[in-house]
Amino acid sequence: MRPAGAIEVDAAVRAVLRDMLGLSEARVAAFDETTPLFGALPELDSMAVAGILTELEDRLGMLIEDDEVNGAMLETFGALSRFARSKVA
Question: Which CATH superfamily is domain 6-88 in?
Answer without folding.
Answer: ACP-like (1.10.1200.10)
